[in-house]
Design goal:
heterodimer, A: two-stranded antiparallel ribbon, 2% strand
Chain lengths: 380, 41
């Protein structure tokens, strides 16, 4: 009896695949034990193991005597991300349905921080080009600074970057590490006195008409200036319109709860297709992880410095930490800023300002994604 | 100098400028909208 077939898989394992099992294990550990973005890191970690098993049936294989066999993860990737970037875009309906733009609408100048805190994206693109990445890959890596998974996945897929797996891992890992990264970045460019600046909260009233018209107006304005951002901005605002219209209660409930859970479940494991050892294990992946960190740090610094600039022009001082909340990692960034503020002065509550800046970061990041695509296409 | 780097600097200033312009326009529209709809009420 020949039992050699039992060892086909074991004999075919490479050291790169073993390394991917370890990386998958680390992601699962971070998800479960540290609760770092568990809904994404756990499926990605498990998927990393799944696609790196030799002759894995989860990805397409050509079997001797049988021919081509389709794998479900490769199919999910081709249909859900490769063909139309559908999964990350649909996820934005859910994100839009979850966001209450009220704190932003009652204090609209916070919109400016959603712009300033995208600086890390562009700074990182420049650094990536200096490190030798071509423009497509540099732009895809820079978008890690959008501090949101879907724009990173979408831009890197549209630009056909071969680093989509590493970019997604970096984006989600650093989102989870916002409570560690942002305090460090904020302290680099602020003094204790600045962090103690108090900001009275006197929100203006927001009418229902404003709430309903806001998503439509944002879509039209963003679409006219950056048409490539329309899929992201449009779906984000579509979700928000469902929430705010007041006549689609059950749809709003599905968009806010069921839809994002379902898409997130599939998105993590689908992205793992791009974590195959032959693609993922390289020095470039390490560089991308470092560049992702730079993107997050300079996003925060960009927002803080812009707030300090506004303070030069205005009588009513802004706590510069609010600028750092202009990144898209919602609501984590707002909470981090509030926590830092309370640490410096237990009676200084700036949460609502930070939430306003934080939700504007959602708009800023998708806008940045569209603008980067538009600008990069001119240099290709 | 690396050509991609020089291009990236153009992307940087145009990109940041573009985002600020869009956000400023949205800000203005929100301010006007809030004023108009609040007065109506």
């Amino acid at each position: 009896m020949d039992f050699a077939f039992l060892f086909d898989g074991i004999m075919a394992v490479t050291w790169q695949q073993l390394l991917m099992y370890a990386i998958g294990g680390i992601l699962i550990y971070l998800a479960i034990n540290k609760q770092y973005e568990p809904s994404l890191l756990l499926p990605m970690g498990f998927g990393a193991i799944l696609v790196n098993i030799p002759l894995s049936g989860a990805i397409n294989q050509t079997i001797e005597g049988i021919g081509n066999m389709n794998g479900v993860i490769e199919w999910l990737f081709n249909v859900g991300i490769g063909a139309s970037e559908a999964l990350p875009i649909i996820l934005f309906i859910g994100i839009g349905a979850m966001i209450d733009f009220g704190p932003l609408l009652s204090n609209p100048k916070m919109l400016l921080f959603g712009a300033a805190a995208q600086f890390g994206i562009f700074f990182t693109i420049s650094i990536a080009t200096l490190l030798g990445f071509d423009m497509k890959d540099a732009a895809s890596i820079g978008i890690i600074g959008a501090a949101d998974g879907p724009p990173s996945i979408l831009v890197s897929q549209i630009l056909h970057s071969k680093y989509i797996g590493a970019i997604a891992v970096a984006a989600y890992s650093y989102m989870a590490l916002v409570p560690i990264i942002q305090p460090f970045a904020i302290k680099l460019v602020t003094t204790k006195k600045e962090r103690m600046i108090r900001m009275p909260y006197t929100p203006g009233s927001v009418t229902k008409t404003t709430r309903v018209l806001f998503p439509i107006i944002v879509t039209v304005i963003a679409g006219l200036v950056a048409p490539m951002s329309v899929s992201l901005v449009g779906f984000l605002m579509f979700g928000n319109l469902i929430r705010e219209c007041g006549v689609l209660g059950s749809l709003s409930n599905v968009a806010e709860n069921v839809l994002p859970n379902l898409i997130t479940l599939l998105l993590g494991i689908t992205i793992s297709f791009s974590m195959r050892a032959e693609q993922f294990v390289s020095l470039d992946t390490v560089l991308i992880m470092c560049l992702g960190l730079i993107a997050f740090v300079f996003d925060s610094i960009g927002g803080v410095l812009f707030a300090k600039f506004l303070n030069l022009l205005s009588k009513n001082k802004i706590n510069p930490m609010i600028g750092a909340a202009g990144i898209s990692a919602f609501p984590m960034s707002a909470r981090v800023v509030q926590k830092m503020s309370l640490k410096e002065d237990p009676e200084n509550h700036i949460l609502m300002h930070a939430v306003g800046a934080n939700v504007s970061g959602q708009i800023g990041s998708v806008l940045a994604g569209g603008i980067v695509l538009q600008l990069v296409s001119k240099f290709l | 100098m690396n050509e991609n780097f020089l291009n990236s600097l153009q992307i940087m200033w145009k990109g940041m400028f573009g985002i600020f312009v869009v956000m400023l326009v949205i800000l203005l529209v929100v301010v006007i909208l809030t004023k108009v709809t609040t007065e109506k009420q």
